[in-house]
Amino acid sequence: MDRKKVKIDSLDLLRASAIVYIVGILHINDYINGYLIFPGEGVVTESFLSIFVFISGYLLAINNRLISNKDEVKFFARKRFFRLYPLYFFALLLFWFCSFMSVKSLIVHALLLNILIGKSIPTLWFVSMICFYYLLFPIIVMGYALKRTLLIIGIIISTMVLVHAKTGLIDMRLIIYMPSFVFGVIVGKHNFLEKFHKFNTIVLSSFSVFILLSYQYLQFPDSQWREFNQVLLMLAVIPSSILFGDKLAMHINKYLYKNLAYASFCMYLFHRIIYFILTNIYSSPSQPVMFAYLFFLGVPLIYIISFIFQKKYDKYSHSSFIVAP
Fold first, then answer.
1. What distance separates the 2 farthest-apart alpha carbons in the chain?
2. Confidence category of residue 3, pLDDT binned at 50, 70, 90
3. Which among 18, 136, 247, 324 has the fewest CB atoms less than 10 Å away?
4. With the C-alpha atoms ordered 230, 236, 237, 239, is the resulting torsion angle positive or negative?
5. Mean of the pLDDT values across residues 255-268?
6. Reduced to 3 DSSP states, what percent helix, strand and coil does the chain have, rounded to the nearest 5?
């Protein structure tokens, strides 16, 4: 089997696993009074979100290798805008319609200012952050050189940390997840993903580091180095997750996870709306009953609606918003 195809399959498997965890476990907790909270939940959550961000950076890098002038930057911005932002804006309108946010908050989120001023409603902070990284991507890859990229990111992160420390502005999550996104871009630009299976010792060592950092993260929640520790553990979990996904993807029918991966963005955008509707239709004081209701009815419904919506949107956007370089 082609190694590159297996690698992409492994990323789809990881993305599918991440969305099932986020939608089907993590966020269901909000509707069942934390019934599914378990020891180490924070580490698992940060790991899955980090993998999501890493995959976004990686896929951008391998699908947009040539960005060397302003015209190509504009083309990338238009192409990605029509791929990502309209779905996000539609989700904002639904959140407003369901009274999850005010008109003022809708405008702030629509302009992506929420992630910069540190005032985001649950769930949408992550999408705003991804949109911001998409805008950052051309800066990272134009005239790409590894040292240049690391220098630029170092300056950006240092500036953001300083602004946050002085003013309280900028959501720290924008800073914390940025290294995972940049790591994905670098891996994509240098084809490191194809080489991971050759460096099992390094990958296993990174997993050992992840275990150690996870212990520190959980045992010392008040540490002044907590955010720095969080960044490192999120980076450390990525290589071993890819290796595990690589091995597992070869033994699982790909259609079990590829469609989930395809629908994952819309699932993330719209699952709160669907849960809102379902909990207004039926509610039970029993936590196990509510979990069963939302997981076995809600999650499949979220997937079906998201998959169909993404398919229709892709068909419409490809035919109506085709842009020439």
1. 59
2. very low
3. 324
4. positive
5. 93
6. 80, 0, 20
Query: Shortest CA distance to 15 belongs to which of 7, 136, 214?
Result: 7
| Nearest in space to 124 (alpha carbons), one of 140, 139, 111 | 111
Q: What DSSP state is assigned to residue 28? A: G
Domain-wise residue ranges, the chain? 3-320
| Average pLDDT of every residue of the chain | 88
Q: How many residues are given for the chain?
A: 325
The CA-atom distances, in angstroms, between 295 and each of 42, 199, 241, 275 are 21, 38, 25, 10
298's tokens: 């809600």
Residue 10: half-sphere exposure toward Cβ, Cα within 13 Å: 25
CA 170 remoteness from chain centre: 18
Total-model pTM: 0.90
d(CA 320, CA 140): 29
d(CA 15, CA 20): 9
| Residue type (1 letter), 1 | M
- Token pair 């993998």 is found at 51
Residue 296: partners with Cβ closer than 8 Å, 6 or more residues away = none
Among all chains, which residue has been given the structure tokens 């769930």? 123
Provide, rounded to the nearest whole percent, the portion of the chain with pLDDT above 90. Answer: 58
In tens, the pLDDT along 73-102 reads 888 877 777 788 899 999 999 999 999 999
The CB density around residue 82, as the number of other CB atoms within 10 Å, is: 17
Q: Which residues contact 21 (CB under 8 A, 6 or more apart)?
A: 44, 45, 48
Q: Which of 306, 272, 281, 302 is nearest to 101 (CA)?
A: 272
pLDDT tens profile 30-56: 999 877 888 888 899 999 999 999 999
